[in-house]
From TrEMBL:
<protein>
    <submittedName>
        <fullName>ATP-binding protein</fullName>
    </submittedName>
</protein>
<keyword id="KW-0547">Nucleotide-binding</keyword>
<feature type="transmembrane region" description="Helical">
    <location>
        <begin position="340"/>
        <end position="359"/>
    </location>
</feature>
<keyword id="KW-0472">Membrane</keyword>
<keyword id="KW-0812">Transmembrane</keyword>
<dbReference type="Pfam" id="PF14516">
    <property type="entry name" value="AAA_35"/>
</dbReference>
<dbReference type="InterPro" id="IPR027417">
    <property type="entry name" value="P-loop_NTPase"/>
</dbReference>
<dbReference type="GO" id="GO:0005524">
    <property type="term" value="F:ATP binding"/>
</dbReference>
<keyword id="KW-0067">ATP-binding</keyword>
<keyword id="KW-1133">Transmembrane helix</keyword>
């Protein structure tokens, strides 16, 4: 770092990490992708995780560092493509976007036949499949001619982010489109690393798609960080200089962990605000207020789930009402609130009986007295 330069904030909240030196953790996940890429038979991967858990950053970091993770990088060509940032209104748009990224890779540019195949216009389903199959043919040609360049031994690996974008246009991206991708995968001509919030078969059911593509080889669920990864993140230095001091002091690290927990986005947000507070002379209350405001947009795991809410509502409201409503069979009108009160008490009494804290006879007497009291005698 230059003398007099202002240290930079190493924490990034609100976007994909594109600086590989700021990416921390996820070693097991990165290894899992690389191992399925370099195995005897490549296995496509579906990276699944909630919003802002780090799917995009993981895919992009793998794209940046994959050559360090496999034994023979010359066997592969890897691209990253966010389907949200490109125009994919038609099937040919998808093929064109993939082809353009492949054409940027030096290994592809070194083979004229691949260049020609990927630049074909129009690049429809047949033309795309032919071009991808040509990558595999290069391997066969290499086996027949040992003097050919080793870079011709290529497997295209597509890291596709925001994959659910394709489901918005089912008329273009139909079962035929997905069946074609599956065929290329099954013939070991193509490997996909697909990021989505839900597993792909969830979207298949929602959009009534039946292609076997959605039974993707391996599902990699992205969860919160481990304690070791949290420690690595809060110790990020403000400079990329080797052995640089952590950007945050001990108390600041503690506050960051307290606010962010083990969620990568919340930790980044907390670290960013704590660092800003020191630079701007703000106090801890300023950090907490800003953190509360900016973290509201992130759905909390489970709390934002409609399924979780429906289950809770059924347990604390619907179930007691149903139990309490049994008393209506005696012919007396009972309101929902009265039914709920009765139901809650009955559930509690049953629990006491199950744990042996109350006898069956005592429990029955209590219930009878409560029913008579609620019903007015």
């Amino acid at each position: 770092m230059n003398a007099g330069a202002v240290p930079s904030n190493p924490f990034v909240a609100g976007g994909m990490l594109d600086d590989p030196q700021l990416f921390v953790g996820r070693k097991d996940e990165l290894h899992a992708i690389a191992s399925r890429m370099s195995g005897a038979q490549p296995t496509s991967v579906n990276v699944v995780g909630e919003k802002r858990i780090g799917k995009s950053s993981l895919l992009y970091h793998f794209f940046q560092t994959w050559e360090q993770r496999v034994q023979d990088p010359s066997r592969y060509v890897v691209i990253y493509l966010s389907l949200q940032s490109v125009v994919c209104q038609r099937e040919e748009d998808f093929y064109l976007a993939v082809a353009q990224e492949l054409l940027r890779r030096p290994a592809v540019r070194a083979i004229p036949s691949l260049m020609t195949a990927l630049q074909l216009n129009p690049l429809n389903r047949l033309a795309f499949s032919t071009a991808i199959a040509l990558f595999k043919n290069q391997i066969q040609n290499q086996n027949n001619n040992q003097n050919q360049n080793n870079n011709q031994n290529l497997l295209p690996v597509l890291c596709l982010d925001d994959f659910k974008t394709l489901f918005e246009n089912k008329s273009e991206f139909d079962d035929g489109f997905y069946n074609n991708l599956r065929s290329l995968m099954d013939s070991n001509s193509l490997m996909l690393v697909v990021a989505s919030q839900k597993e792909l078969d969830f979207y298949a059911r929602r959009h009534q798609l039946t292609s076997s593509f959605f039974n993707l080889g391996h599902v990699l669920k992205l969860r919160e960080l481990s304690e070791e990864e949290v420690t690595e993140l809060v110790l990020l230095p403000s400079s990329t200089v080797t052995h640089a001091q952590p950007a945050l002091g001990m108390h600041e690290q503690k506050l960051t962990r307290q606010l962010g927990g083990r969620h990568p986005f919340l930790l980044q947000l907390a670290g960013m605000l704590v660092y800003q507070a020191r630079q701007q002379g703000k106090d801890e209350n300023w950090v907490k207020t800003r953190f509360k405001e900016q973290s509201r947009r992130l759905p909390r795991p489970g709390l934002g789930s409609r399924r979780w809410w429906r289950s809770l509502r059924w347990l604390v409201w619907n179930l007691p009402i149903r139990i309490g409503s049994v008393v209506k069979s005696i012919g007396v009108s009972v309101s929902d609130m009265s039914s709920w009160i009765l139901g809650v008490v009955i559930v509690c009494v049953i629990i006491l009986v199950v744990f042996g804290l109350v006898s069956h006879s005592d429990a029955w007497r209590w219930i009878q007295k409560l029913v008579n009291k609620v019903l007015g005698g």
